[in-house]
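The passage that follows is intended for readers who have already worked through the single-chain material. We present the inputs for a multi-component assembly, then the predicted structure in tokenized form, and finally a short commentary. You are encouraged to pause after the input and sketch how you expect the pieces to fit together before reading on.
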Amino acid sequence: MTDIQLHSIPLNAQACIDFVSGPEIGGIAVFVGTVRNQTRGKRVLRLDFEAYEPMAISEMRKIAENARSRFSIDRISMHHRVGRLEIGEIPVVIAVGAPHRGAAFEACQYAIDTLKETVPIWKKEHFEDGEVWVAAHP
Amino acid sequence: MMKLKILAFGISRDILGGAELTIELPDGGTVADLKTELMRRFPEFSKLKALAVAVNSEYAQPGQSLQERDEVALIPPVSGG
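Having made your guess, compare it with the prediction:
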């Protein structure tokens, strides 16, 4: 079972955990991304996240399907936030439920690593003296 | 000629100066042709680490040909998560 969502309101990690829970599940791995207050020594004030929403959903769905075919997992939930986020807020939650913990950990790592490479979502960092789209330039 | 509506996100929206742009390409033009035209009109694109193009919400190869009814989107380097 797969649960993919984009939200403009705060994410609820418990909702992802609940989705991947079940009688056949022996372990749940959860990744929660949080907004950090600095990057390369520079103070970050806040982030803006923007998504190409239909494609972001379909790319996240591909990741979930690949995770399911590569690892022995049953359930995966991926929620991503869009809009303005303050320090400490949660841009992404990924929860994976599997019969055994090894597959859950591996699939969770695969899902967040691949999300960062392929899902069309962009973040802009706001500093005291300006702003920058992350990773846009070499 | 065909008129393509281009969607732009992240830094590509800043470079175009808006979330949408219409670009004319010769019939049968490809993703590579589109990128060449964009780089010519907006040299800032050549400074990016990469620029992918999505056609109908799927990453497209340079040789893929475009049609007027396609939804074409510019995908600068992603940074979600």
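Commentary: Chain A has a mean pLDDT of 97. The interface with chain B takes residues 33, 49-52, 54-56, 58, 80, 91-92, 112, 115-124, 133-138 of chain A (CB under 8 Å). How closely did your sketch match?
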